[in-house]
Amino acid sequence: MSLESFQRALCDLVASPDLCLAVREDSGAALAAYTLTARERERLAAVVWQRGMSTNCTLYRSNRITPVYTLLPFTCRALGGQFQPLIEAFWRARVFGDGQFLSEVDRFGMFLRRRIAEGGVASPFAGELLAFELARNELAFLPRKAALERVAALPAPDPAAPCALHPLARAVAFSHDPVALLDAAAAGALPPALPERAALVVLSVVTGALTVLQIPEPARLACRLTAEGGALWPLASLAPDLARAGLLVAAAAGGTAPGICGESMLEFTNFRAP
Amino acid sequence: MSGAFAGSRALGSHALGLRALGVGILYNEAVSTLLKAEPGMVDFLSIMPDLFWTDHGTGAEKNRFVELDSWTEFLDWAVGRMPVVAHSIGLSLGSAAFDDDDYVEQLADWHRRYGFLWHSDHLSFAQVRSASGHEQHAGMAVPLPYDFEVLDMVAGRIRALRPKLPSPFLIENAVTYLRFADEDMSEPEFLNALVRQSGCFILLDLHNLHTNARNHGFDALDFLRRLDLAAVMEVHIAGGGEIAGMYTDSHSGACPEPVWALLEEVLPRAPNLKGVTFEFHDSYFPVFGAAGVHAELARAKSIWSRHRGP
C-alpha cells in the first residue's frame, strides 16, 4: 500500500504544480492524504525542490495538451485566449485516465460542448468547428476495412427505398458558411463574425482520403433525418449529391441493419432550424 | 528475408540463437514513407504496437483494441521484408497497483501474428489508481527509486510476463529528471539484479543515459563499467534538447556527440547485442528531414561495421 500511495502522490505532483508548491510550503499537511513511509515522505518533500520536477510538470502538460492541439487545431484557434483557462478547467475536472489520445480528445470535446451549451465560450464558431473536428477524428480512427466489408454485404441502395449514411461518413451541421469558416480556421485567421447561414457537410473516408461534401437544403434534409432516425427517404429527391458520391447505403426496413444505421448517427448538436 | 527473421517466425526465437541484425529505426509515420521508398535503409524495424491500435480501455465492453488499418497495412508490408521487434509503452511494469491481462494478451496475439524477434518495455511506471480507485495515467513515464522493494516487484512482474510473450524480453533503462534520496542501489546495480532475478535482457538507451548523466552530473562511462553489458541485447540512440535548464529526451533529431562516443564504448563490449535502433519523433521530421535520418543511420552503420563487420 505504501509504494502504491507513493506512486500516486508522485503522479499527483507531476500533474499539479499547485500541489508541488503546497508540499514546499508544508509537506506534512499537503501529503497527509497519502500513506507513506518516512523515507517516501522525505523523498517527495525533496523532489518538489528539484528543477527536474518543474521539467516533469512541463512534460505532463505538454503531453496532455498535444493530443488536443493536434486533433482539434481549428477548435483551439477559435477558442483563442479562452483555450488556456478551459483546458486547465478540464484537467482539474478529469484526471488523465488512460493516456489514450483519442479518448482524451473526446473527453475534452464533451467538456467543451457543455461549456458551449452553457454559454461559457465566446467564439461563435467553436461549436461547429468542434463538431467538424470530432467527426473527422472519429473517421480517421475507424476500422475502414471492416466497414467496407459490411457495406459490401448489403444490397445496393435503391432510390425508392430507405437508405442511410455510409458508415465511413459523418454529417456535421454548420450555422456559418462552411467553406469560409474552414478556410479561415486553416489559415489561422478567424474573423470576429461571419454571416449566419445554415449548411450541412458530409465528411467521408470511403475512398481512403478525407473528402468533404456540402449538402444543399440542410434544414429540409435534417428534419427528415431526425424524424426517420437516421434513414434518408427518399434517396433521389433529398440527397442526390450523397447518392452520386456513394455515401448512401441501403438501410434495411425496421432497422435490420443496425451496424450501419447506428454508426451513421448524424451530429446536430449545433444545428439551428430556420 | 533474413535468416534470423525466418527462424523466429517458424521456431520462436531465443536470445542467444538470434544473429546480430545491425542498425534499425523506430517506426513513425515519417519512417513509413522513407522505408517504402528504400526498404534496405535499415537492417530491422522496431515498432511500438500501442500506436497501431486505439485502446478503448479496460472498461470497454467489446472491441477494446481497434486496429488502425493504414498502420497495420504498413506492418503487413514490412514484416515480409525486414526483421521486426516490438517496443511497447503500456506495460507500466513499475506500477505497484496495475495489471492488465487483456493488454498482455493483445501483445501476445501480435507476437503470434508478426513474429517479433524480441519485446521491450520501460523501467518506469505510468499507471496508478487514483484516490477514488479509478485508473490514472501519469502523462509520462515516471521513474522508480532503485530499492529492494521495487526490484522484487518489477522482477516478479517480468517473471510472470515472460512465459506469455514468445521472445526474449528486454527492459529499457529510464530517463529521469528527478533524483531520489537514500536509494538501496545504484541504477547499474538495480539493472544487473533485475536481469539476474527476472531473466530479462537490457535495452540500453544511450540517450537516456546521456541525459541522466548530463542533468545529474555523473559519469556515463562509469555507469557502463558497472553495468553487465553481456545482458544488453538492443541499444537505442536519439537526440534531445534543453527545456528550462534541463536537457530532455525529446527525440528531436540528430544524436549528440556524447551518444556516439557511448556507442563506440558499448559495441565492442556487449557480446549479445543484436541491434542499434535510431529513434526520432515524427513531429521533428519537417526540420530534421530525410537527409537527417539517413545521415544518422549511416553513421550508426559505420560504427556498427567497424566493430562488428559488415
Write the layout of secondary structure elements.
The complex is a heterodimer of chains A (274) and B (310).
Chain A: H1 2-15, H2 17-25, H3 27-30, H4 38-47, H5 51-71, H6 73-79, H7 83-93, H8 101-117, H9 126-140, H10 144-152, E1 163-165, E2 169-176, H11 178-187, E3 196-204, E4 211-215, H12 218-227, E5 231-232, H13 235-238, H14 240-244, E6 248-250, H15 258-263
Antiparallel strand pairs in A: 1-5, 1-6, 2-3, 3-4
Chain B: H1 3-11, E1 22-26, H2 29-37, E2 44-47, E3 53-55, E4 65-67, H3 69-79, E5 84-87, H4 101-114, E6 119-122, E7 125-129, E8 135-142, H5 148-161, E9 169-172, H6 187-198, E10 201-205, H7 206-216, H8 220-226, E11 232-237, E12 241-243, E13 246-248, H9 257-266, E14 275-278, H10 285-308
Helix pairs in contact in B: 5-6
Describe the structure.
- The complex is a heterodimer of chains A (274) and B (310).
- With 274 residues, chain A is mainly alpha-helical.
- Chain A folds into 2 domains: 2-117, no CATH class; 142-263, no CATH class.
- Chain A has 15 helices and 6 strands.
- Chain A has helices at residues 2-15, 17-25, 27-30, 38-47, 51-71, 73-79, 83-93, 101-117, 126-140, 144-152, 178-187, 218-227, 235-238, 240-244, 258-263; strands at residues 163-165, 169-176, 196-204, 211-215, 231-232, 248-250.
- In chain A, strands 5-1-6 form a 3-stranded antiparallel β-sheet, covered by helices on one side. A 3-stranded antiparallel β-sheet of chain A has the order 2-3-4, sandwiched between helices.
- In chain A, helix 8 packs antiparallel against helix 9.
- The longest helix of chain A is centred in the N-terminal third of the chain and has 21 residues, at 51-71.
- Residues 253-274 of chain A have low confidence and may be disordered.
- Chain B has helices at residues 3-11, 29-37, 69-79, 101-114, 148-161, 187-198, 206-216, 220-226, 257-266, 285-308, and strands at residues 22-26, 44-47, 53-55, 65-67, 84-87, 119-122, 125-129, 135-142, 169-172, 201-205, 232-237, 241-243, 246-248, 275-278.
- By secondary structure, chain B is an alpha/beta fold.
- Chain B has one domain (22-308): Divalent-metal-dependent TIM barrel enzymes (TIM Barrel).
- Chain A binds chain B through residues 3-4, 6-8, 10-11, 14-15, 33, 39, 42-43, 46-47, 50-56, 58-60, 63-64, 95-100, 102-103, 141-145, and chain B through 54-58, 66-69, 90, 94-97, 125-131, 134-140, 142, 145, 149-150, 153, 176-182, 215, 243-246, 248.
